[in-house]
Specification:
Blueprint (H helix, E strand, L loop, with lengths): L1 E5 L6 H14 L3 E4 L8 E6 L5 E5 L2 E5 L4 H10 L3 E5 L1 H9 L1 H27 L5 E4 L10 H4 L4 E2 L4 E5 L3 E6 L15 H12 L8 E5 L10 E3 L9 E2 L2 E2 L1 E3 L3 H10 L3 E3 L8 E5 L2 E5 L10 E8 L2 E9 L1
Parallel strand pairs: 1-2, 2-7, 3-6, 7-8, 10-11, 11-16, 16-18
Antiparallel strand pairs: 1-19, 3-4, 4-5, 9-10, 12-15, 13-14, 17-18, 19-20
């Protein structure tokens, strides 16, 4: 099996399209997207009295004609945001009604995920390429149903078989973060979740882990330490770098010793590491620049033949 792994595209349609194209480019038979696929921001595109539309795009106020509207929305999507066409009354309601704004954002985000999955079906149908797409800790539960299709499999919180010879254990949950994201829990609960999944593994099949959170105390989980108000802790003017990965994830890797363990979550910690016999990978993320960081990995039976970090 030759797989391409990436994660943390955070709503960037440019990165999503590159992900779908990666199988052909790298001659991979399996695509795995490891979580945090949705964006964080809705951009209202407001109709004006003269039939044009206005929006604030990357800090710049733009007024465009009907002919330019689709191009503006394309730029918004490529930067990881969600364009939302509305009139002035709808815009005012979004500003004044927090519950309605949250409901609208969730609906818009879920619709965009469905559109991404439809694009995957269009690009991958008939190719024989396997595609697994998992949410991450930042992704709302509302998107889970939208991820399933005839072409795309959401493997989260279960063990699935890849082909005839390899099984994959996947989990979107992480240890606690400063941002109180939807899918995070204390280390004890996370370890219980992971060990419950591991009990479903077939001992006669090679195993791959697809765990959004990286293991603690490795080159895959290094990030700046933050204060309670989310400011970077400095030592001599330089950020203090600490391990922020999960001890539960590390424990499971040490116990099971899968052939390969795939991770994301910590964007700035691009690395390949070893825990015992297990090759652990975090390709990092530069989604805000329209760049997709990934890993191309050749797995032969019970060993990793090659593992290469790539950028597109």
């Amino acid at each position: 099996m030759k797989l391409y792994y990436a994660g943390d595209v955070h709503g960037s349609e440019k990165c999503w399209r590159k992900f779908l194209n990666a199988a052909k480019f790298y001659e991979a038979d399996t695509l795995i997207m490891g979580g945090d696929i949705t964006g964080k921001l809705m951009v209202p595109v407001v109709e004006t009295a003269d039939g044009r539309h206005e929006a604030r795009v990357l800090g710049r106020h733009e007024i465009v004609s009907a002919d330019e509207l689709e191009e503006v929305e394309k730029r918004i999507r490529f930067n990881g945001f969600y364009p939302y066409r509305c009139d002035r009354a709808e815009y005012d309601r979004l500003n004044s009604d927090t519950a309605y704004r949250d409901e609208t954002f969730t609906r818009l985000m879920t619709d965009e995920v469905r559109r991404w999955i439809a694009l995957a079906e269009e690009r991958l149908a008939g190719t024989g390429i396997r595609c697994f797409v998992m949410p991450g800790n930042d992704d709302e539960f509302a998107i889970d149903e939208a991820l399933e299709s005839t072409t795309v499999v959401n493997p989260d919180n279960r063990v699935v078989q890849i082909g005839d010879e390899v099984q994959m254990l996947s989990c979107s949950w992480t240890n606690p973060t400063p941002w109180d994201s939807p899918r995070e829990e204390p280390e004890e609960a996370l370890l219980e979740r992971l060990q419950g999944l591991a009990s479903q593994l077939d001992p006669d099949l090679p195993t791959i882990f697809n765990l959004h959170c990286p293991p603690h105390g490795t080159s895959l989980d290094r990030a700046p330490q933050l204060t309670a108000d989310l400011k970077v802790v400095l030592d001599g003017g330089e950020p203090r770098i600490v391990s922020v990965g999960s001890t539960a994830v590390r424990t499971l890797i040490e116990e099971v010793q899968p052939v390969l363990s795939l991770h994301g979550h910590i964007h700035e910690s691009k690395a390949i590491s070893k825990i015992g016999k297990t090759t652990c990978v975090n390709p990092g993320s530069a989604y805000s620049e329209g760049v997709i960081d990934g890993a191309v990995i050749d797995v032969r039976k019970d060993r990793v033949r090659s593992c290469q970090l790539v950028t597109g």
